[in-house]
Amino acid sequence: MKSGRHEKILEIIANASIETQDELLAQLSNAGYRVTQATVSRDIKDLRLVKTLGSDGKYRYTAAQSHSADIRSNFSQLFSSSVLTIDRAQNIVVVKTLSGMANAVCAALDTMGNSAIVGTLAGDDTIFIACRDEVSAAELQEYLKQQKK
């Protein structure tokens, strides 16, 4: 069931400009898949979908590139255009994004494979990044600030 749904999601985003999870949920529903927003959110993370800027100036979900240079380029572009602030509290880095962009930025961050990151959690406009320790969090915060420029 899950793999079939994942295939359908990839097909949907390849054939339509999907800007939000709600739009993806509606498309899945039209295709006969009964899922919740939470399931769609997990699927986006599992599939490592990211939002990229289209030629029409709108963001849309796309499948992440498999090449690390492309991933870094996509991450940098998405990060710099979507992130508002980067803050830290002990070993937690908090990233504030434009509304609706946290999940995409978080998924792109997850593809980077940074060993200092224990886990991430994204809402609509906020990402919490748990790091192994305060030093790792400080280093990650500085790295992310450089990506913002």
List the helices and strands and how they pair.
Layout lengths: L1 H14 L5 H10 L6 H11 L1 E5 L5 E5 L4 H15 E7 L2 E6 L4 H9 L6 E6 L3 E6 L2 H15 L1
Antiparallel strand pairs: 1-2, 3-4, 4-6, 5-6
Helix pairs in contact: 4-5
Task: Explain this structure.
The termini are far apart. The protein is built from 6 helices and 6 strands; from the N terminus they run H-H-H-E-E-H-E-E-H-E-E-H. It is globular and about 45 Å long. The protein is of the alpha+beta class. Strands 3-4-6-5 form a 4-stranded antiparallel beta sheet. A two-stranded antiparallel ribbon has the order 1-2. The protein has 2 domains: 2-47, Winged helix-like DNA-binding domain superfamily/Winged helix DNA-binding domain (Arc Repressor Mutant, subunit A), CATH 1.10.10; 68-148, Gyrase A, domain 2, CATH 3.30.1360.40. 50% of the residues lie in helices and 23% in strands. The mean pLDDT is 87. It has helices spanning 2-15, 21-30, 37-47, 68-82, 102-110, 134-148; strands spanning 49-53, 59-63, 83-89, 92-97, 117-122, 126-131.
